[in-house]
Specification:
Layout lengths: L10 H4 L9 E5 L4 H12 L3 E6 L2 H11 L9 E5 L5 H14 L3 E6 L17 H17 L3 E10 L23 H23 L5 E6 L13 H15 L11 H4 L1 H8 L3 H4 L3 E3 L2 E2 L19 H15 L6
Parallel strand pairs: 1-2, 1-4, 2-3, 4-5, 5-6, 6-7
Antiparallel strand pairs: 7-8
Length: 321
Amino acid sequence: MAKTFGAESTADEVLEGIDLSRKRVLVTGVSAGLGVETARSLVAHGATVVGTARDLAKARRALGEALPQQPPNSPVDLVEMDLASLSSVRKAASDLIARAQPFDAIIANAGVMACPQGKTQDGFETQFGTNHLGHFVFINRLLPLLKSGARIVMLSSAGHQMSDVDLEDPNFERTPYQPFAAYGRSKTANILYAVALDSKLKGRGVRATAVHPGGIQTELGRHLTPELIEQMMARINRAAGSQAPAFRFKTVPQGSATSVWSGFVASADAVGGRYCEDCHVCDANDDPTSRVGVRSYALDLAHANDLWRKSEEMVGERFQL
C-alpha cells in the first residue's frame, strides 16, 4: 500500500526508501531556506545536485551547515545566477548547456516576495521579472538537457489566489502597485508556466507541475513589514472562516516535502499540469472565502499559452519546443 503524506510530512519522510543515486537534479536558489533543505534532502538520498545562487559564498556557507558530514568541497555543484538579470540567466544556462550533462528534474525554487516596487536589470517589475521571466528563460533554454521522464517543479504559492496575471500591464505601469498583488501575479504565472510546459513537453515524456510549499518563515519574507504581515494574516483569517483549521506555519523540512514528493514520488500523470500542496494534487477552487486549492484561472491552458506568448515578447526570445 502506498504511503500517504500531508501537511506535516518532511522531505526526508517523503523520500524514505527512495534511491536517487542515479538522479541529477537542478535546484534554483540554494543559498537559504527551502532551496538549501531541498538540496540537502536530495543529496542525503543519493542525488547529484546542481544549485544556482546569486551569492555563491552565501550558498556555500548555508550548504556547509546543512551538510556537515559531507566532504570539505560542497556536495552541491554551484552555478552563479541572478534571476533579476537576463544576461546572468542566459550565461548560467549557456554554461550548463556547454557541460552537456542531462538532468532528471528541475526544481524552480528561487524567488522574491512582496518586495517594494522596483525593476529588474531588464526593466521588468521585480517580482514578475524574477519569479516568472527569469525562470521562463532559464528553464526554456535548458530543455534540451532534460531526459525523457524528467520533471519540472515550479514553486508557486497560495498567494496566487490574490491575483491573476495582467497581460495588458505586467509591469504596473498603469496599475497602482501593491506588493502582494504583484506577488500573486508572479505566483499565478508560475502555475500557468507549468501548465503550458506540461502541455508542450508531455509528448516527449517530460512533465511539469506547480506546488505550494505552505507558509514558512524563511528569508523569502525579508521584505515583510509589520503592516504587510498584518495584511497577510488578516487575509488568511478572513479566508479561513469559522470552519477551517487555524493557520499554522510549516517548518522548512515540511515546506520542502511537496517539492520532492511531486518531483520523485507522485506519479507523473497525477501531477503533470496540476497544482499540488501538502503532498497531494489540488482541485480547482474559486471560492473567494477559501484559502485552499487552486484558482481555475491558473490552470487554464489557453490563458497559459497567452502568458507564454507575452513572456516571449517581453524577453525578446522565442522558444520552439
